[in-house]
Each structure stands twice: as structure tokens, then as C-alpha cells.
Amino acid sequence: PRGRDGRWGAAGHGGRRRVRPSLLRGKVACGAGPGAMPGRGALCLGLLLPVLLGCGSAQPGACPALCECSEPAKTVKCVNRNLTAVPPDLPPYVRSLFITGNPLTDLPAGAFPAQRLPDLASLNLSGNHLRTVEAGSLALPALRQLDLSGNALVSLSPQAFGEGGSPLEELALRGALRDHGVLLSLARLPDLASLNLSGNHLRTVEAGSLALPALRQLDLSNNSLVGLRNVSFQGLGQLQSLNLSDNSLGVLWNSTLAQFRSLPALRHIVLGRNTWVCDCAIEDLVAWLKESNQVEGKEALTCASPDKMLGKALLKINGSDLNCSVPTDLPSQLQTSYVFLGIVLALIGAIFLLVLYLNRKGIKKWMHNIRDACRDHMEGYHYRYEINADPRLTNLSSNSDV
């Protein structure tokens, strides 16, 4: 029973009962007053304890302290926060994650746990200081876009995206490679459709690093490529766009042009801002440009050397502009020269052996004479040595002289 003041243990006026809102003022009235039921306080405490613990613990989906989160947009941004490790409490709803401009140097295994981030599809890790990406660090089941630009990668584990391959479709590595061997780890990305390798000072591309059957867009711009003889585009049957601008290409040989012709889906090739050498070796490239519709902006391609051709459009070059009385393929010319030199040396050797054979008797007699002369000479030395070594022979020699 409660009294008029609403407290337990007193009869109320007129049989009415009032509930005093003690909890709203931070007070707990469980088990208070005379006549309280035994154990009521323990029961109330047991009910309130989980609530109190829940108030002090992190709520599911809470945003990390140094990040900005938008649950409606499924986006988390941790930009320029001086992070040295990936925040472990990323909300599970995130689909687009930006961790940029931080001093991260390593991505260890489990840096992005697949169980906690099942929907993460776009990951931007550009502008950090990443050097190593370890096995299992990017094994995310929904990852489609990855940006590692502006880092200093020297090691990218072939198992970084998981043992069973990765659904990754877009990868950006702009200015991110310090060891070009990293490219060999990309072969485990069978679904990769877009690859950006611009700004990495590439002089060549490792054989096998472009074995990506689903690749549709390849950006090799702003590198240091001087030729494509060792670059194989075979197997890129889905390739649609190839950017080779801002390199040091002087000429494209027939072997490379034949590869371009063999790619059925290739429709866009960018060759601008290269150092084209307009001598006889460029005839094949000029002929291909005039007949092909694959090159974008081909009218703007101009000669960088020699001086007499400086600034001349490649499409306006004709046979009279080039002095092509000598062979145009220098490697073939050198190969022919080596073959001719070998034939000449073989002929000289054969003549020398023939002369020796024809004069074998005279040579044999000459060698015998030399042998006899050497023998007589050595016997004289031996005789003098014996005389000098024996005192009796020395006295005898002296008496004989007298």
C-alpha cells in the first residue's frame, strides 16, 4: 500500500495510487520503504544493469572518432587525420570509404575484415605513405573500386585480394609504384576492367603483367616509355581504350602496329605529346595513321626531330620528305651486317686452313729444323754447365787451352 505522498507502505487516500516519477529525477525507488518485498532491489538492479552498460558502450554502427560518417549515403571519410592504422571500429554499413592523406605505411592482414565490412565497394587509399600491402589485407567480397594513387608501393602481395581472386573492377595506381615488379601481382584480378598506371616513370612493362582478359581501359600516360617492342598486348581481347600520351615514344614498329590491328575491341588510342622521330623508320607508323580510325586526335601529332621536320604533322609526311635510300629497319640492317661479317670470317679461316694443308711438308720440315736448332743450342748450354760444375773438367779445359 502507498500513502498520499505516493510512497510504498502507507494507505492511500480514497484508495487511489500514484506513481512517483523517481526514475526521471535519477532516483531508484526499488525496494524502498517498509514493507518492501524481499529481493525486489536485486531484481530491479538486474534489470537496469544492462541498460546502464549499454549507455556506456559503443553503439553498433558508431562513427570512429577521427572520421566523418554519413549513414544515409553509406560513406565514411577519414581525411588528413594523421592515422597510422586503419580504424578498427568502422561502421558495417559503409559502402564508400575514404582514408587519404594519412601516414599509413602498411596494410596488414585483416586491415579491412570482410565479416564487418560486407558491403564495402569503393575504397580510396590515395595520398598516404603505403609501402607494403600484405596478404589478406584487401580480401573484401564486394570491393569493386580501389585507389592506391600517390603512395610509395614496393610490395603488393599476390594474395592481397584473397586466395580465391577478387571482384575488383577498377584499380588506380597513379604515381604509386616504387618497384615496378608490383605489376606482376595484378594477374590475380580476373575481373579488372580499368587500370590506371600513369605517372610511374615506366620505361617498359614487365612481360605477363598485362595478362588481364577482362581489361577494357588501360592508362599508361605520363611515363617514360621509349618503345613498345617488349610490351605484349596479346590476350587483351576486351581492350577498348589505350592511353599512351606524354611518353617518350619515337616510333611504333610493325610488330606493335600488328598487335593494335589484332585487338577487335580497341577503338580509342591516345598518342599525343610524344617525341616522334620523323626519319625513314616512321614510314610504317604514318601509313597506319592514315588508314586507321583508332587514334584520337591524330591530326595533332607532330615531329619532334630532326630539325628539318620539327613541328610537321605526321599525317602530312610523304616519301619525298624522307630520304629513304637506305634500309629503314636498323635492327634488320645490323642483323644483315653481322651475317655478312660471319661469312667473311669463315672464308678467311677456310683459306688459312687450305694454305696450311698445301704447305704441310714445308711446314713440317721447317718445324724439324727449328727443333734441331733448339736441341743443338740446348746441348751447348748443357756442356758448358757440366764444365763449370766439375773442377777437373775446368782444369782440363784450361790445360787444353794452354
From TrEMBL:
Keyword Repressor among UniProt keywords: no
Family matches, as Gene3D superfamilies: Ribonuclease Inhibitor
Swiss-Prot/TrEMBL keywords: Leucine-rich repeat, Membrane, Repeat, Signal, Transmembrane, Transmembrane helix
InterPro entries cross-referenced by the UniProt entry: Cys-rich_flank_reg_C, Leu-rich_rpt, Leu-rich_rpt_typical-subtyp, LRR_dom_sf, LRRNT, Wnt_signaling_inhibitor
SUPFAM superfamilies: L domain-like (SSF52058)
Highest taxon in the source lineage: Eukaryota
Protein name as annotated: Trophoblast glycoprotein
The species this protein was found in: Ficedula albicollis (Collared flycatcher)
Record lineage: Eukaryota, Metazoa, Chordata, Craniata, Vertebrata
